[in-house]
């Protein structure tokens, strides 16, 4: 299975996908409360040799969900900045050590990169945390989710697709195929 993102261009020319964002077209042949269920419906259609190129999964009633992970304090902000800056500095230092004119492998560029990265990471994290002025004292992760997921199909195959998905819905839960 190949998954492409909204900005990837792999295979677009042969699939006839528009280059600009456009509203989806087709007739609804199924509606599901989770993306996994909608994806499972399309997988079922594919197993039945259905023309899945005519199918689109559409998220309806989009919501931005921000899940709070934990409290954010000066210590956590500075520690996170030091770690991320340190990793970046270490990577830059290792790359610079490859171009070191001295003979043999030296660890000095990697060590300097690590320390410099940690310092810059702490400074940037302190600046970013100070700018929030206590308005955002928590860390979180955001997700775009939909209230429901509709499966659309082009009119030429919509009736067949709807029939196949209706048969899938009539199966007892847990059966495969």
Question: If you had to describe this structure to a student in words, what would you say it looks like?
Answer:
- The chain is an alpha+beta fold and 177 residues long.
- The protein has 2 domains: 24-62 and 146-170, Alpha-Beta Plaits; 73-136.
- It is 47% helix and 22% strand.
- It is built from 5 helices and 3 strands, in the order αβαβααβα.
- The protein has helices at residues 12-15, 35-47, 74-98, 108-132, 155-170; strands at 27-32, 55-71, 138-153.
- A 3-stranded antiparallel beta sheet has the order 1-3-2.
- It is elongated, with a radius of gyration of 25 Å.
Strands ordered across the widest β-sheet: 1-3-2
Question: What is the global morphology?
Answer: elongated
Distance linking N and C termini: 17 Å
CATH-derived topology of the largest domain: Alpha-Beta Plaits
Helix content: 40-55%
The structural class is alpha+beta
CA-atom Rg in angstroms:
25 Å
Number of helices: 5
Please report which band the strand proportion falls in: under 5%, 5-15%, 15-25%, 25-35%, 35-45% or over 45%.
Answer: 15-25%
> What is the count of structural domains?
2
Major sheet size, sense and barrel closure? 3 strands, antiparallel
CATH class of the largest domain: Alpha Beta
CATH architecture of the largest domain: 2-Layer Sandwich
- One letter per element, helices H and strands E, the order comes to HEHEHHEH
Mean pLDDT: 86
Number of strands: 3
| Low-confidence sequence ranges | 9-13
Domain General stress protein 17M-like: 29-103
Transmembrane segments: 77-99, 111-131
Protein name: Magnesium transporter
InterPro entries: GSP17M-like_dom
